[in-house]
Automatic annotation (TrEMBL):
Protein name, per record: VCBS repeat-containing protein
Gene3D superfamilies per record: 2.30.30.100
Keywords: Signal
Keyword Repressor on entry: no
Residues that span the membrane, as ranges: none
Species annotation: Rotaria magnacalcarata
Recorded superkingdom: Eukaryota
Amino acid sequence: MLSSIQLPATKEKSAQCTIKFTGQTTYSTGSNPRSVNIVDVNGDGKPDIIVVNSGSNNVGVLLNIGNGTFAAQTTYSTGTGPFELTVADVNGDGKPDIIVANYGSNNTGVLLNTGNGTFAAQTTYSTSNGPSSVVAVDVNGDNKTDIIVANYGSNNLGVLLNTGNGTFSAQT
């Protein structure tokens, strides 16, 4: 465990300063946590934690209490073997939604943020075999967030275009 780091105070001077870290705080997750993202999900201005629990087939949301600690996770079901997640506003309501690559189910799940840090059940979109990575970006210039999926088992990428209100077309 890292307990301190010494860094030069400036380039010109040889003075040293010491930075100390307290011991690690751990939080329970589901089985086989695999991917993590940090974003304010409930609009309180504090970064919250979202984690993919691959062995438990869910994502966990840990809300920031505000004093450097987090509440116990609230879990939301995903497909089988979720591998990775990303966060983006996919329905234009200004709230971050969760997008997860469900490796074992061969689909991508979208969990819409319903407010106050809670999420609706996932809506799934078929992908090729073994989706292992997802990113969210507007790929066609229509000001809607689309999804790009890396399909490990098929050696290809899939694009799901946002059709509005957080729904997506079939993978192309």
